[in-house]
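Friendly challenge for the regulars: who can give me the structure tokens for this chain first? No prize, just bragging rights.
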Amino acid sequence: MPVDRSALGAFLRSRRDRLTPAQAGIAPFPGPRRVPGLRKEELAVLAGLSPDHYSRLEQGRQHTVTEEVVEALSRALQLDDVERAHLRDLAAPSSRRRWAGPEAPQRPDPGMLRLLDTLGHVPALLLGRRSEVLARNTLLAEVLGFPAEPGSNLARWLFLDPAARSRLANWAEFAPAAVGALRYEVGRHPDDRRLAALVDELRRADPDLARWWDDQRVAFRTSLTKHVAHPVAGPLTFGIETVISPLDPEQHLVVYTVEPDSPTARVLPLLAGWAATPERAG
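First reply, four minutes later:
Bragging rights claimed.
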């Protein structure tokens, strides 16, 4: 059965639309322009492809996409490393695209759990496929105001729980990156029906997510800054760092780091002690 190339075509169109001839370093082709960015013919020339070949790619009619073509398009579209990896995933042959996800629950990596246990002084959680929480420490739940019990879903909390928007002071900056991470995961696992169902659910429920999804942005969980408006401790600032499991690349340990002797660093021990009291633990 031929591979569905519609996602590849949509991504190429979105990246072409954002790049003008001037940005690409070429003179615009003559004639009226009906697109915000490069024309198909202009991109084809930049990538060293025939216009017909490139048109077949955007229309989803080119079933075989070589690594050389992926690299040429990545250079012509000035893709960053994450976008380049996403394009490679979308262009992958069918032998690499048959991953529906195991039905059994994902088991946390024991080594990552041991590392999580050493991080009681800062918020941390272990995420698996589809933004599912595999484990977290007590401080994480206290800082976010989200129980984050194993089996819960961080993306659902972020987009479906109104409390997330009030607790995360820079929600409007952080949330689009989360959408980009979901799209990156969909590109890696296009046959994961549970992941597709999650994305459909979120797109129907949240107009912001639907808009960000349609702009084809991709991202990977890397260093970010998160501002938390805690109802007791006040404003908190964290640098978000992600550690990938060496045994299972689908598991990410997300650590909320703090600057030494910062207001956030000084208040965290108080929050940790408060969260550990029997009343709060209950």
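The beta strands are 124-127, 133-136, 224-230, 234-244, 252-257. The CA atoms of residues 109 and 246 lie 9 Å apart. Your move, everyone else.
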